[in-house]
Specification:
elongated; alpha+beta; three-stranded antiparallel β-sheet; five-stranded mixed β-sheet; GTP Cyclohydrolase I, Chain A, domain 1; 216 residues; GTP Cyclohydrolase I, domain 2
């Protein structure tokens, strides 16, 4: 077993300074957000809104921007027996949330991931951690699938990777064209010519969707 990625071994003093820096950034972000709202005519001195700027700053910092301010989580890998090196590993239905780069409103959806391990296996929970870290930043979905692919590829050097993401974009459902039932799907495969493996992946996604519908 080996681990790839960041682990925080900083002395307590440096960690405390980092916390103070985060507090300073949050205060600055909250102040700017308050000015932004006031410029649009939103009253920010009511019982319900006086603390809103800090709530919004913390929401972005803690929920939507983890991938911007933190390194990729530690990735645990395991050696693979020769008999498993051609086995397709598929994980379906990983929840993700992100921010649209263009409007900074949520993207909410599911990721499906498959890979053929080569010489290393990912710990199953690490697939979800990679997906969520990659998504926790402003992005466009077309680029997100490539970021997930490249992060997994650099961690274990598999012989095949497939990524599929289906998500609702609130920039479409809540503004502009206001199309609330529209979902966007993006797929990426490496290498791109393995048609049989791609079909096995899509069949697994179809089975997951059927099982999810039956269990509602």
């Amino acid at each position: 077993m080996r681990s790839i990625g960041s682990t925080d071994h900083r002395p307590a003093l440096l960690q405390r300074k980092g916390s103070e820096m985060n507090s300073s950034k949050l205060a600055a972000a909250a102040s700017h957000y308050k000015s932004f709202c006031e410029a649009l005519g939103i009253p920010m001195n009511t019982d319900h809104s006086v603390d809103t700027p800090m709530r919004v700053a913390r929401m972005f910092h803690n929920d939507f921007l983890v991938g911007v301010r933190e390194e990729c989580p530690k990735i645990t890998t395991f050696p693979v027996d020769s008999m498993l090196r051609d086995q397709l590993v598929i994980q379906c239905g990983i929840r993700l949330r992100s921010l649209c780069s263009h409007h900074h409103v949520p993207i909410v959806g599911r990721a499906h991931v498959c890979y053929i391990p080569g010489e290393s296996l990912l710990g199953l929970s690490k697939i979800a951690r990679i997906v969520r870290w990659c998504a926790a930043r402003p992005c466009v979905q077309e680029e997100l699938v490539h970021l997930i692919k490249d992060t997994i590829k650099s961690a274990i050097n598999p012989t095949f990777i497939g990524i599929s993401v289906t998500a609702e974009h609130e920039c479409m459902s809540c503004r502009g064209v206001t199309e609330p039932d529209s979902l966007t799907t993006t797929n990426v495969f490496w290498p791109s010519h393995n048609e049989d493996t791609r079909q096995e992946f899509f069949l697994a996604i179809s089975h997951w969707l059927q099982a999810r519908g039956a269990n509602r």
